[in-house]
Amino acid sequence: MRSLLLLISCSAAFAAPPFSLEQVMSRPFVESLTAAPAGGGVAWIVSAKGARNIWTASPPAYSGRQVTSYTQDDGQEINEITWTPDGRTIVYVRGGDFERTAEAPNPRSNPEGVEQAVFLIRADGGEPRRLGEGRAPAVSPKGERVAFLNKGQIWWVAIEGSDKPAQAVHARGNAHSLHWSPDGSRLAFVSDRGNHSFIGVFDPAAKSLRYLDPSVDLDSQPVWSPDSKQVAFIRSAASQDATVFGPKRSGQPWSVRVADAASGAGRQVWHAEEGRGSLFHAVVASQQLIWMAGDILVFPWERDGWVHLYSVPLAGGMVTQLTPGEFEVEHVSPSPGGKEVLYSSNQGDIDRRHIWKVAVSGGRPSPVTSGGGIEWSPVMTSDREAVAFLQSGARRPSHAAIRVGSGPVKELAPQTIPSEFPEASLVEPEQVMISAADGMPIHTQVFMPADHKPGVKYPAIAFFHGGSRRQMLLGWHYMYYYNNCYAMNQYLANQGYIVLSVNYRSGIGYGLDFREAKDYGATGASEYHDVMGAGLYLRSRPDVDPARIGLWGGSYGGYLTALGLSRASDLYAAGVDLHGVHDWNVATRNFSPSYDPQKAADVARVAFESSPMASVKNWRSPVLLIHGDDDRNVPFSETVTLVEALRRQHVPFEQLIFPDEVHDFLEHSRWLEAYRAAADFFHKHLGKS
């Protein structure tokens, strides 16, 4: 008896104390790490309870300091930060959601309206100066002007003086991907014409506009040669296939081309082989095609079924695989001087990310970071003395860090993590493999209640991420949306639920065949096998009450939540569906306007059969529906239509609607309200442990 009392006492002593949703959501989120072109400094963005600001750090101390001073949770994002060539001034964009080109969202319903505009500010602080309405700034190499986009057209403005912005190019199509030539004499860009696109080159001195090597295909990712005479780019075959959410393992091969900037004449440098890797798949990088030292071009390719980096000489010839192995490369950046490439990958640690570097001449990649953390977005400082990156852990939230030489990793701004954040009370999720209903092995992470006791049956919740091109990790995520989801899963575990985060098929991180899973999405909903597998796994656990299993997710995860409730209300007792897809025929048109269900009857039939609306008559379990009515990803009508059907069947539902809010909620307060409502809903229908 004495031993038992001691065990109970020790368990209570080590049990994590409860924390509030506000506390766990107080963590900062960092993104957009960028190295200055001179001076060795770095800049990044910190979002703290909805207030977004730019921070910088410089050698030798690398002590982070806040540069801007925005204080409100006003739904106005900051992004697209870049530097002037001397490394003394930062240009950035404020406003908008940076996902879809449309009018700037106004989530606070401000009657005065909002705008998306380009600003600049000294790196050592001061007041920001508005340059003009627009986005996607590109600072000229001489630092005298900034080109940017406004409503799909190219504008520019002088950095010094009081000149007003002016439209630099009047052209058809929507421009994007602005890139100055290294000598600053010309500006390359992509001209999107809908079903095809060109690489344009604007010469201000000659007042000329030339399109390089034009074709019927989709040209993108322009990159200049160091001598400013040539432009390399990627060409993908045009296609009338409007299918968006279905497997595409092969197609017409893409290619790398190079063109003379003066004459426009082009030639093929290299092309992908048929089969695996014939369709281009991007990494996370400012440029997918990188012109490196020695006239070597570096790009991602999936020839072996995994996203890897390859190089090819400008003159053509055989490609060299720089990153061999069964893992995937994700965040990529070149080193100053162009002799090495930095990247993040899940090599040897498939549910995390670490930083690596490799010489473009080939050779074995070498690790920059390792261990139990997660690292991404590497950049090398301009003096080549240090590598900065973003970092998190299972408990430690995202933050900027740096490693100088072979020294230890240093956090750049530990003061951004508030004292109220309950770091010590968080749990470390456990990597668990489960079997889908059709036998496919699926990676998951299990969050256990900190005070888990033998013999107790707990309520359980399965979580499904969005995307579907996403992967949840064994720690705080590198994307804002899923960083929030990780906080919510930690909170639910702290409230006494066993939480299962499911990396279902069609997600990333596990190779091309997993990502392009047979019959996924609108072509058969094969991910439903993973939804069932998750529920059956939870039901089989001796510490789970089989009558109290719920599920939740947003966007694509909302789709899978609705699919689970419409097909398996006997397994899932309740669900929370955030802005989910309920009819693929509606959602597909939002991403591919040319999609016409009436002209593709067989495709449309399968798409509908793969949708929750097709099986809504079997829906019995209660659901909480959450949606912003300015959603530019999943039409708000998806929730309107579902509610109408649920009402006809007398299915209990609750709704939380955010007027003027977008898909990835821009206001921190909206996330708190949504997650608070979700937790209360689960408490009501599943009960706490």
From TrEMBL:
This is Acyl-peptide hydrolase. One of its GO terms (biological process) is proteolysis. Residues 249-383 form the Dipeptidylpeptidase IV N-terminal domain. This enzyme catalyzes the hydrolysis of the N-terminal peptide bond of an N-acetylated peptide to generate an N-acetylated amino acid and a peptide with a free N-terminus. It preferentially cleaves off Ac-Ala, Ac-Met and Ac-Ser. Also, involved in the degradation of oxidized and glycated proteins. The keyword Hydrolase applies. Keywords: Acetylation, Hydrolase, Protease, Signal. The keyword Hydrolase applies. Residues 489-688 form the Peptidase S9 prolyl oligopeptidase catalytic domain. Residues 1-15 form the signal peptide. GO terms for molecular function: dipeptidyl-peptidase activity; serine-type endopeptidase activity. PANTHER family: DIPEPTIDYL PEPTIDASE 9, PROTEASE FAMILY S9B,C DIPEPTIDYL-PEPTIDASE IV-RELATED. It comes from the Bacteria. It comes from uncultured bacterium 89. It holds the Pfam family DPPIV_N. InterPro entries: 6-blade_b-propeller_TolB-like, AB_hydrolase_fold, Pept_S9_AS, Peptidase_S9_cat, Peptidase_S9B_N, Serine_Prot_S9B/DPPIV, WD40.
